[in-house]
Specification:
The chain is α/β, with parallel strands linked by helices and about 350 residues long. It folds into two domains: about 240 residues, Rossmann fold (3-Layer(aba) Sandwich), CATH 3.40.50; about 100 residues, no CATH class. Helices cover about 40% and strands about 20% of the residues. A ten-stranded mixed beta sheet has the order 3-2-1-4-5-10-9-8-6-7, with helices on both faces. The relative contact order is 0.13.
Length: about 350
């Protein structure tokens, strides 16, 4: 079986996202041969390291359109523009979706790619969330659906509701469940906390699977994203300190995260106060008045900026207590998808 893999992730997550999907496909294939051809989109700016990786292992996007794989996985990427259609890669992404629909290619569309398909084919706009969905959430599954058969407590018998299935989410936008149902999508996996994770529909000649969550994530993916968001706060690139991913860390990890957050926010407050009009710096380099105690309470050395705190981020302490509760479900989802692709190939004589 041949698959196409279109990797749109930003540079820091480019190689890791590739590894995540390839690991999941290897585990889901059941020992059967699956050949994955990798493609990249020219509309996404790349640094030297990723450009070298692309030259060594990836094909340009235009070569995808001359192929006929059994299925195509399209990753998401971090949104930059307020409107999806304003992203620099929008026309290329739509071209991939149209190719899949026109040529009967089964499409696995992850996160932003799923939102792009909803906009391109159904005119459904994504909705900004009041706060980022980040964490591992319980889902109800319809075990009679081919893609979710065998998940939870059902054990593949299709006899009724399964036990909750855990799936990571990490996103800034959403599309309401009712908007998809009104356009004929099936939603075999949903969560009362974060909405749908899996949606399916035949679009043109292609069977589209839209995935709003991240069953492919490795154990520490959410932690690395959380550290990235903390780094952005410490550098002043975001105004608010990020929330700890929901349902993800153990008690010790949560306590370590809270302690570091207290240090970071106290230091930020002290720095802002020191820079405020009317605040006079003392001869020691600390602002007069209440700024000194605030810094001392935060455990921050005199004159230290908040950007200098990142080396103290308790990554290892937080990582030690993470239990991967979603990998088995991710493998099952991909195994079911591969089974559907094989069945479709056999039916067509391919």
């Amino acid at each position: 079986m041949e698959l196409a893999f279109v990797n749109n992730m930003p540079d820091p997550a480019f190689a890791e996202t590739e590894r995540q999907f390839l690991r999941l496909l290897a585990a889901a294939s059941g020992g059967q041969a699956v050949v994955v051809h990798r493609y990249w989109m020219p509309g996404i700016a790349r640094g030297n390291a990723v450009r070298r990786r692309v030259r060594a292992s990836y094909r340009p996007l235009e070569r995808l359109f001359a192929t006929a794989p059994a299925g195509c996985i399209v990753t998401g990427t971090e949104p930059r523009a307020e409107q999806l259609a304003d992203e620099p890669y929008w026309s290329d992404l739509v071209a991939v979706l149209e190719w899949g629909a026109d040529h009967g290619v089964a499409m696995w569309l992850s996160c932003l790619a799923a939102h792009a398909a909803l906009l391109a084919y159904d005119g459904i706009e994504r909705v900004p969330l009041p706060a980022k969905f980040s964490g591992v959430f319980a889902h109800a599954v319809d075990t009679s659906h081919p893609l979710t058969r065998g998940l939870g407590g059902d054990r593949g018998k299709g006899t009724g509701p399964a036990a909750p299935v855990m799936v990571p989410h990490s996103r800034l936008n959403t599309v309401p469940d009712d908007a998809l149902r009104s356009r004929g999508y099936e939603l075999p996996m949903t969560s009362p906390d974060v909405g749908w994770t899996l949606a399916t529909k035949v679009v043109g000649a292609g069977a589209f699977v839209l995935v709003q969550g991240h069953p492919e994530y490795s154990t520490t993916s959410l932690l690395r994203e959380y550290r990235r968001d903390v780094r952005r706060y410490l550098r002043g690139d975001r105004p608010d300190y990020p929330a700890v991913p929901t349902g993800y860390l153990d008690q010790r990890g949560t306590q370590a995260a809270a302690a570091f957050a207290a240090t970071a926010t106290a230091t930020a407050t002290a720095t802002a106060t020191a820079r405020a009009p009317g605040v006079v710096a003392s001869s020691t380099g600390m602002a007069a008045g209440s700024v000194g105690p605030a810094l001392a309470a935060a455990g921050s050395p005199t004159g230290r900026s908040r950007s200098g705190l990142l080396p103290g981020f308790p990554y290892e302490r937080m990582a030690r207590g993470i239990t991967n509760t979603w990998q088995a479900a991710g493998v099952r989802l991909l195994a079911n998808w591969l089974s559907e692709l094989r069945r479709g190939g056999e039916a067509s004589g391919a």
